[in-house]
Amino acid sequence: xxxxxxxxxxxxxxxxxxxxxxxxxxxxxxxxxxxxxxxxxxxxxxxxxxxxxxxxxxxxxxxxxxxxxxxxxxxxxxxxxxxxxxxxxxxxxxxxxxxxxxxxxxxxxxxxxxxxxxxxxxxxxxxxxxxxxxxxxxxxxxxxxxxxxxxxxxxxxxxxxxxxxxxxxxxxxxxxxxxxxxxxxxxxxxxxxxxxxxxxxxxxxxxxxxxxxxxxxxxxxxxxxxxxxxxxxxxxxxxxxxxxxxxxxxxxxxxxxxxxxxxxxxxxxxxxxxxxxxxxxxxxxxxxxxxxxxxxxxxxxxxxxxxxxxxxxxxxxxxxxxxxxxxxxxxxxxxxxxxxxxxxxxxxxxxxxxxxxxxxxxxxxxxxxxxxxxxxxxxxxxxxxxxxxxxxxxxxxxxxxxxxxxxxxxxxxxxxxxxxxxxxxxxxxxxxxxxxxxxxxxxxxxxxxxxxxxxxxxxxxxxxxxxxxxxxxxxxxxxxxxxxxxxxxxxxxxxxxxxxxxxxxxxxxxxxxxxxxxxxxxxxxxxxxxxxxxxxxxxx
Amino acid sequence: xxxxxxxxxxxxxxxxxxxxxxxxxxxxxxxxxxxxxxxxxxxxxxxxxxxxxxxxxxxxxxxxxxxxxxxxxxxxxxxxxxxxxxxxxxxxxxxxxxxxxxxxxxxxxxxxxxxxxxxxxxxxxxxxxxxxxxxxxxxxxxxxxxxxxxxxxxxxxxxxxxxxxxxxxxxxxxxxxxxxxxxxxxxxxxxxxxxxxxxxxxxxxxxxxxxxxxxxxxxxxxxxxxxxxxxxxxxxxxxxxxxxxxxxxxxxxxxxxxxxxxxxxxxxxxxxxxxxxxxxxxxxxxxxxxxxxxxxxxxxxxxxxxxxxxxxxxxxxxxxxxxxxxxxxxxxxxxxxxxxxxxxxxxxxxxxxxxxxxxxxxxxxxxxxxxxx
Lengths: 540, 373
Prior knowledge:
The complex is a heterodimer. By secondary structure, chain A is an all-alpha fold.
């Protein structure tokens, strides 16, 4: 597909590195902690992002364990309702902004330069900064839990006026931490856009761009479009609470429902921010293990772009019960239903790719296949939720909880795990332990369904979300759900073991460990050299 | 299909689930609208199941027969505009099929005209208030599950967390309109049996309606996170036949006028501290303890303590002002709408003498009535 040309070309980040020297094209990074603090290398930063994301995944998971322990049986046993609300709120914030989004940024950092034949990201110093402000954002957010009055307890959606007039004193910390997370995301997004637009290898035209880079490019535009909207929302919450404004306060001429419009104008594209890169990962893994070209590359690109555009037109489907005019309800119902068309196109394309392939089932493929099934189930419940009259019954129940966990856990997080298994030989130079990987997969996929599938029934039977205690009819199913939750949480420790074992050693990985894999990242040795492509490959 | 669905579930779960009464599906409800919503839900579910069956069927076929270990050799087909157009058009047509019944149902649901009775529903932290327009009847509806059941000190009753002191009473066979609003944060009034879920937004009024066919008691809950006790503000609706409803309404109107007389009479009565303390404790536990806690310690940083509080142990009129008119911009509500002067007198007396506050102050209904005059 391409060759590494030996043209004498200066590495793209050469002018940006102080300690630049041509030592076989490698820099000797500073050692110890300073290596990680000062690094501008896309792989180091990718690694930092991924570890940070995993730590946040466990932190948010621990909070989910508190929630499931309290809900194990009816009555108040372990925590008081106020702390319970803090757990649901911070669990959501940590998982969305701390686990899923940084994991994708980490994968983008590691993979995009390798996939497009670049030596590094376009803006390495900003890259360093966009990662290193993130831990501080979460230190601020998590430390607010220990303040008198507690941390944020108004749900990750922080609807006003619960988050303004009625919120705890720590709300300012919440607002500040969201601002920092937003700045970090925007910087990450700018970096991806600049890198993909400017640093593609010669000959890599748009329609030859790997789908992971494509989906991330579109995601990055979504991030730049909506993160400022979120910043606006939290700022208005801040001034409403502390400076006497009335954006969301009816008594002062404001409107609490306006908050929801602003929030979901951010929030709905945000859910696609958390799933579009997954689509890119899927489009790499499924063809590899089917040993067959992706069925419809160009329609995948167009479908991704359609989803991104439609994602700006559906925000109010989160708000059908707020009392919108019928016309608006119909508009948002139709637009929401429409999103299932390009999403369906993607699913059909992946299935068509598998059709008449030569399939093997290594761990990345197992996660990819389970994504295909479980994300589709999440898509079905999403379509059901789009139907406004039925949504009146589903809204704010466990049916919704089931829906968004199917698309976020078995959707986004399963593909992140698939991506780690798929590319970790390239990162570490070692193969991971396939038996442990499969064990991790089977434990995860079984427990995650025990955890989330019965939630559909709880919701249909009438259990509202975000409640610390429930009517006795819900007791048995909640118990099953909690057991699934503990099992899923514990299963992730296997993942930790697999990753650490793979970093420490294991079977040597060849440059291309997967028979059917295609793409520039497999042209360079494993582990990948510190600077991926110091001379750009030429794509034929 | 329904059997298949339930059968798959029974396989998936332990037998324990079969012993409970929890329905595994949305219930059909007791109104025409709720039944239409139920059938809409089932239609979409069946369509999704059918699509799932086809897509997953093809996928699993491929996984079984096109695996490398069985000697499968990959074909080399890709990119077909015809196929892409086909699988764009087919879902689109299916969607139109779904959208038509959804649209007609939605338009019917939003038609609030020609109601025979209008009831204003007001949410506040953490109770509902019902006001019958032009009937002179209004009341608060609070969770009636005892605290010891919640804390696990007593066995839980059949309607644990789904029972209230005074249910909303409505007639069957008539169109009843609800105007939904809130006094503080956003709540959401949800009764699954009527397929009604409407947000209660502070400062704005939402409309919805129902036309119940069957008499009975229907239960629901607040559906929008509204703070600490969001899980503890249930809704109970008692639907009565026309005549019984009229009789109930008349008795309520009579009771309302009696209450006015009683409140006036109470102004002339001077109660002993023991009596006030006893009554005050009851009122405190029902209305105040959710935030300020039964032991008067509050929740630091969220809800102030009553014990040794400068307001509770200080000037009586500041204390009365706080209880009667509340504190705007906080969760402290104005209780003059919810409590009689007699009850306010009792609870203020209780707060000033319980938990070692021991101010010795006694407040009578007349003091409450004179406050602010």
